[in-house]
Amino acid sequence: MYDLDDIRPYLELTSVAAGAVSGALHAQRRTFDFVGVVVIGIATGLGGGIIRDVMLGQGPALALRTSALLITAAVAALLGALFGTLVSLLGRPLWVVDTLSLGLFTAVGLQRAQAAGLDVVPSLFLGVVTGVGGGVVRDVLCRETPVLLLSGQPYSVAALFAGSVYLTALRGFGLPQLTAEALATAAAFSLRLVAAWRGWMVPPLPDLPRALQRLRRPRPGGPMDPPTP
User: Fold this and answer.
1) Distance between CA atoms of 112 and 127, rounded to whole angstroms?
2) Is the dihedral of CA 17, 23, 28, 33 positive or negative?
3) What's the pTM value of the predicted model, to 2 decimals?
């Protein structure tokens, strides 16, 4: 059973704070009341880590065994609720904070997976789940379709990219863990920033039978398909 002091506690606390602020800003944009904004913020900050710890099955979730995480989530959500209107005047804080928390949570999930002795592919999976878990909890509580399930700008893809950069920097190039964490966070932020700038979207699920049928249609002026007996 691991504890907060086992692996980079500042990263866990920072990711929880960023997630809580992101959830509070999202709830405020939905015009929830004060209690609702704080509750959504706390759930967003702790949701991904709780899902991660349940999947690891190493005892109670870390958020329930460490007061620092609960206090951090509560304080960050409270600040987001109190100063959300002021922060909203600065531009697009919700997108920025949400993207930063995505990279941070992914790195945290990978660290926990590595500490549990998981292989590369399960570690990446757990990192992505940790990265997107808080957002899924937030959207479900807000009675929205989780952004993870919608076609649009990369979200889970950005988490997967951040996790791949983290493992490559740490295992492939032997870089310090702090550098790998910074690169993973920057990777998620950069991919979503470029996607927003260039208008990249994750395409919807293709209808293969219909696509094949369109390919079989004769082009104008081209040879006709032989008649079917």
Assistant:
1) 9
2) negative
3) 0.81
